[in-house]
Structures are given as C-alpha cells and as structure tokens.
Specification:
alpha+beta
Length: 272
C-alpha cells in the first residue's frame, strides 16, 4: 500500500455572534485566508443557536467534502509526509487567530449570523495504485465530515479504525465565503424583537423559530391534546412562544452550570 495526496475543497458553515452584520463580517475576516487546526475543539460547537454556550465564532458540527474536478493532481507521498500533514500547527489554534474569543455569554447572546465557507485541505489516500486513489475521490458524491469523528478524519489512526482509506490534513485553510452566498442573520429573525429583560412583558418574544423550538412546540401540542383539555386549543404561535421560554430558561441554567464548574479548582487564564 502507498499513500497519495490530492488537494480538496470542503463546504463549511460558520456562525458568528455580533450586534450587526458589519461587525460579524469584521470577525469573519479575521479567519479568511488563515489556517485553522481541525482538532482544536474551540472552533466547533453543536449547541443550539441562541444558547448562552454558543461560542462567539464557531463552525457547524459537520462539513461536506466535495468531489474533485477531473485533472486535479494526485501524487504519491512518503509516510514522513503523512506524519507532517498530521502534525499540529500552533499558529492555527483559535486562541492565536481570534484572541480572547468568548465561549460563554453570561446573561444573554447577540444575534447570530452565518455564512457558507469554502475550505481547503489535503486528502491523504491509502491505496495500491494511483488510479485507485483517484477513483475514490473523483466521484461526485459529497462526503459528510463530522467533527464528532474528527480523530478518524484528521489523524493517521483513521486508516486503521474505520474501513475507509482516506483522511484529511489536520491544518485546513479558510478560503472565503462560497460564491453565490453571503453572510446573513440566522437567529433570531431580523424583524424579531430582542428577548425581554426580567420583569418585562412576554409579548413579542417571537424570535427565529429554530428546529429545536419547532420540536419542543410539537411535543407540547401532542401533550396538551392528550393530557390537558384546557390547553388543547393553543395556537402554534402560543406553543412556539412557550417552547422559546422553556429553551431559554434551560440554556441559561446550562450556562450557569458550565461557568460554575469551570471556576472550581481552575486558576484564571487569559486564553487557552
């Protein structure tokens, strides 16, 4: 078996918390053209939008590996080159690229903006022949790359731990916003009011209806229809409002618990 390398592009979604789209774009420009460490956990989060524990800048929990254009170079490489591509780059850590980036937002969060980004990496393929390596990556199927499986995607151990002879370089490059897309507000909806302060009227909460809010609202509706006749006639808007209140309270309690645990026995540090 030999190792072959081929440059590939991936599609990734970035989430940025900022008061305006202009400030969100300024934060995004900090990483455009930069290299990031795919094994730096601070870059990635799977918490829901609107959560107090959604980082200031983060990527969605999965990327998509695009198919490669015909004619792209596929070269045989030595095992030493594989080791080099798997090595950590200290300059690619989040703390180096976005110093003091926040992971917790105290009593509330800012609007969330998102953009689809094009990302470049080096695919490393283990195969008998060059034609086999090219055949694996030249198909037109988009392959999901889950960060929860990052050890198998971005380390050489991935060749042994799963029946798929392809891994990606640990350092990946953020090319820029994908052509035809743009940075836009995704939470809450742009016309929605902000969450009220404690003691304010609940009228007008109605932020962006995320998938999580929809799921909770549907479960409430089912429960009310089966168990509570007096609430069975609640409108969808009323159920969504109740679901938002429940999730907001849950997220605040989660954030408080995480913050409390992080302070126990830990010295203060400027940035990990």
């Amino acid at each position: 078996m030999d190792y072959f390398s081929i440059p590939v592009e991936l599609s990734a979604t970035i989430y940025i918390q900022a008061p305006t789209v202009q400030k969100a774009d300024a934060k995004m420009q900090l990483i455009v053209g930069k290299q990031i460490d795919a094994l730096d956990r601070r870059w990635f989060s799977d918490v829901p939008l609107g959560s107090n524990t959604l980082p200031e800048v983060s990527f969605a929990s999965a990327m998509s590996l695009k198919w490669v254009e015909p004619g792209t170079n596929c070269d045989i490489i030595a095992s030493e080159r594989v080791t080099e591509l798997m090595r950590a780059n200290p300059q690619a850590r989040k703390s180096r690229i976005i110093p003091r980036s926040r992971n917790h937002f105290g009593n509330g969060v800012l609007p969330v903006f998102q953009a689809d980004l094009t990302v470049r990496a080096v695919a490393i393929i283990r195969a008998e022949h060059k034609c086999d390596a090219r055949g694996l990556i030249m198909n037109k199927t988009w392959i999901p790359v889950f960060w929860s499986d990052s050890d198998n995607w971005f380390t050489a151990s991935g060749f042994k731990s799963r029946n798929f002879p392809l891994v990606l370089s640990r350092t990946i490059t953020i090319v820029g916003v994908t052509v035809g897309t743009h940075l836009e507000q995704t939470w809450p909806e742009q016309e929605a009011n902000e969450m009220p302060e404690k003691g304010d009227s609940l009228e007008g909460i109605g932020g962006g209806v995320t998938r999580e809010v929809q799921i909770v609202a549907e479960r409430l509706k089912t429960h009310f229809e089966r168990q509570c006749d007096c609430c069975a006639k609640s409108t969808d808007a009323e159920l969504q409002l109740l679901a938002e209140i429940i999730l907001c309270y849950r997220n605040i309690r989660i954030a408080e618990g995480v913050a409390a645990r992080s302070m126990i026995g830990r010295p203060e540090t400027a940035d990990p």
